[in-house]
């Protein structure tokens, strides 16, 4: 009996240790994936902010070049006036062989407008947007970042701004080491002078997110092992408790605690399974991504409790729109996903529209008893038009950001299409 009890204790201990290891690893991976989703989203939003700043630079260059004061000074070849204008506008004005003013040193993106008389070029007006802290502040203002997240501009593997200037940056497998601190990172090129924006979050901050779950897991494991140890000679009850605890922990590991939907880990597992099945049998799978509009503003204006109520309300709307074979999941932050096996893109769009309209019925009271209007933007894509989980997610994400750019509270879909030739612009950009 003693040998049997020792064997039971050893087996139960080994089983609990293995379960703790697997669940802890899955939870850590889940938190990492959610953080990476937020960082990838942040890098895309930051590039959109940069393109907006670039467009404003072009507009400002055209405005300066078309002003009567500048054109009069060019025609009259009034050097002092051109020099004063260049200094006040931080511009470089070239008239013939004479150049007035200078652009900032260092990496930058420039915009040049031409002042001409019919086919004769009279002058060139050039303005610059330096890759410096002012640009980074502008990009941060419109970019939702995770806790302890930040943006950084890098070029040729070196930090331009947002960190130790000149420090080497090597991005490998979504990780980067800056100094001695490891970060999770997502990079997006700005398509200007080889500069990229890097959305980063300290690895320690991501690990801290799993600490409460890890403590709970170890406590549950210790309690379970204690029960098994105390009742090793009566095997039935300890085993029943262990099985129940394992099942509960598994549900916890695959469920988002706030909305009750599947979490990112469960979504990835199900999406891979459905795509494998669809590829084998020649069927379709549609993916819908939804992002709550102005969620940061809701949190800032009404508080995080109201924000949590909005998340729960959107989660219920998605769950109520699902068939039994569908999967609704919280993708990360204020973003949700819906996997629709056997559904073509046109039907997925109708599902997304139905969900979008149902959000109008969500009743949430914010600060000062003010009602909070809840809307969301949707992006949808279909397999096999986009083959593989990464391509399908990227296509749905691109459609989602198109909906955001077009005014929010709408549904966009991704379809395969040929690239269109770039339109010729009057203002040239370096």
Low-confidence stretches: 417-430
Largest sheet: 6 strands, antiparallel
Distance between the termini: 83 Å
Q: On the 0-100 scale, what is the average pLDDT? A: 84
Structural class: alpha+beta
Fraction of residues in helix = 40-55%
Summed up, the domain count is: 2
The side-by-side strand order for the widest beta sheet comes to 6-5-10-9-8-7
Report the radius of gyration as a whole number of Å.
28 Å
Number of strands: 16
User: Helical segment tally?
Assistant: 12
Characterization of this structure:
It is a single chain. The chain is of the alpha+beta class and 430 residues long. Helices cover 50% and strands 22% of the residues. The protein has a 6-stranded antiparallel β-sheet. Strands 2-1-4-3-16 form a 5-stranded antiparallel β-sheet. Helix 12 links the parallel strand 14 and strand 15. The radius of gyration is 28 Å and the shape is elongated. The model is unreliable at 417-430 (pLDDT under 50).
Keywords:
430 residues, alpha+beta, Alpha-Beta Plaits, 2 domains, six-stranded antiparallel beta sheet, five-stranded antiparallel beta sheet, 16 strands, 50% helix, 22% strand
